[in-house]
Design brief:
two-stranded antiparallel ribbon; twelve-stranded antiparallel sheet; about 25% strand; Porin; 14 strands; 8 helices; alpha+beta
């Protein structure tokens, strides 16, 4: 699919792109906001531009991958009929994004059926480091396929005569009390969400290229979501072999390594319904799609940093990057809502993460997204990542979790 003409708004720095000036998070709906470009849209495709700067977890203006991943899903939601909910997405990370500039989302309408819809999204940047030598055409940073489905909960409910159209069925691979039973030794350390420390700029891996103050500030200013990391001491292996799993090693420490992250929406107390289109509502007017994208945003927060720790490279400066990421939602669409329908307060979720495979400079990151209150797995994720580690054990990255633990007195 050819790139559409770049807009002038995508070649000048965004007004909120100076991250050292940020000291707090912004609501998710503001972070993910898009502007449509009707002049470049056709019957088969629509173009949008991001309005807020992406998050840079490192000292460089490198955009957090979850930003384009979630915003691609949100752009696609603008093109489907109201009542169709995002249920699956696979994205491919092609070039580094520059957090200083807007992203351009080109959404192609592959199919719109009565129950299912499919969209193909290409994401471009027209300025920044990656665009040098691109001859002004912009660079394709990311591509994804996004699936939507109408909720069919009504088919399983009895009518006035007690009849239903379909038989209901439901199961999940783990019991609803799995988190408490499996991780009780660590979850019992804190009772309330706010007692856990905020996930820092690089999830506890701190580079001396960034001051401790700025590294911590990046965590406090993480947009859209409040994310806090569980102290896994007492569950994870006490010692991880340095230098990774080698031939003949069964990788026992890596196989046992787990990470739990609690997350919830930044509480802006808006109703979340958005403004309806003048002619017809779309999937972008559906709060369920907005919250589905928030779950997508959370799902990529730690990813390869977990692999770096589990494989014993926590003090090594190497190359890491996501290659592809897939999220599949489970259950009925309303179960993904991130606010309580009665009180309007944000609900709490837990991401349970691990790595299932590594080798050939690649790792596979897996996770489950749990509704903390109901014990339901609302989504499963799998990510293919690139990880290249040098032979020298450089001490340029230190375990920032020790700093957090010391200051928070965990």
């Amino acid at each position: 699919m050819a790139s559409s003409s770049p807009s002038s708004s995508t070649t000048t720095p965004l007004s909120d792109s100076n991250w050292p000036d940020r000291d707090h998070a912004i609501p998710f709906r503001h972070m993910i906001a898009l502007k449509p470009h009707s002049s470049t849209s056709t019957s088969s495709s629509t173009v949008f531009t991001s309005l807020s700067a992406g998050y840079p977890p490192t000292p460089t203006p490198r955009t957090y991958g979850g930003h384009v991943f979630a915003q691609a899903g949100w752009a696609a939601a603008h093109t489907v009929p109201f009542g169709m909910h995002l249920h699956s997405i696979t994205g491919y990370f092609l070039e580094l994004g520059d957090t200083r500039y807007a992203f351009r989302y080109v959404v192609r309408k592959v199919r719109t059926g009565g129950i299912y819809a499919l969209r193909y999204v290409e994401v471009y940047q027209d300025a920044g480091e990656a665009t040098k030598g691109a001859n002004g055409k912009g660079v394709l940073c990311f591509a994804s396929m996004v699936g939507f489905k109408r909720d069919e909960a009504g088919k399983h409910k009895p009518d006035s005569k007690g009849r239903t159209q379909r038989r209901a069925f439901e199961h999940q691979e783990l019991p609803k009390d799995w988190l408490e039973k499996e991780y009780g030794v660590v979850l019992a350390k804190k009772k309330r969400f706010e007692e856990w420390p905020v996930c820092q700029g690089m999830d506890g891996l701190w580079s001396d290229d960034m001051s401790v103050r700025e590294w911590k500030q990046r965590g406090d200013a993480f947009p859209g979501l409040e994310m806090r990391k569980v102290d896994m001491r007492g569950y994870n292996p006490d010692k991880v072999p340095m230098g990774g799993v080698v031939s003949g090693d069964d990788g026992s420490a890596a196989k046992k390594w787990r990470l739990l992250v609690l997350y919830r929406l930044v509480d802006d107390r808006e109703d979340g319904t958005g403004e309806a289109a003048k002619q017809k509502k779309t999937g972008a007017d559906d709060v369920i799609n907005l919250h589905a994208c928030a779950h997508l945003y959370a799902s990529d927060r730690n990813s390869l940093f977990l692999a770096q720790r589990a494989l014993g490279f926590q003090n090594v400066r190497g190359q890491m990057g996501s290659l592809s990421h897939t999220v599949n939602f489970h259950g009925y669409a309303k179960e993904w809502l991130m606010v309580d329908e009665q009180t309007g307060r944000p609900k709490e979720y837990i991401q349970e993460s691990w790595i299932s495979n590594s080798g050939a400079d690649r790792v596979t990151h897996n996770s489950r997204l749990w509704d903390k209150q109901t014990g339901k797995i609302i989504a499963s994720t799998v990510q293919d990542g690139m990880m290249r580690m040098p032979t020298g054990n450089t001490q340029k990255i230190v375990d920032g979790d020790a700093i957090v633990r010391r200051e928070a007195k965990l």
